[in-house]
Amino acid sequence: MTLKLVSFKACPFVQRVAITLEYKGIDYDIEYIDLGNPPEWFLAISPLKKVPLLIVDGTV
What pTM was computed for the model? Predict the structure, then answer.
């Protein structure tokens, strides 16, 4: 299972998720985006620009 967190650097909510994953010993990747200029793939899965976003095996 692959986990990917998507957020922006100053988001306090993604920090909570990352701390929990670290505590549980779960491997994950994190990608920071610029919410002022979000990539198209992000807008396709989060049109309201809500973060953090967790992608599990390619599924949001």
Answer: 0.85
Tell me the average confidence (pLDDT) per consecutive run of 10 residues in the chain, 60 residues long.
94 94 97 96 95 95
As assigned by CATH, the class of the 3-56 domain is alpha beta
Active-site hit among 3, 8, 11, 30: 11
Domain ranges of the chain: 3-56
Q: Is 34 left (phi over 0), alpha (psi -120 to 50) or beta?
A: beta
- Specify whether 11 is catalytic: yes
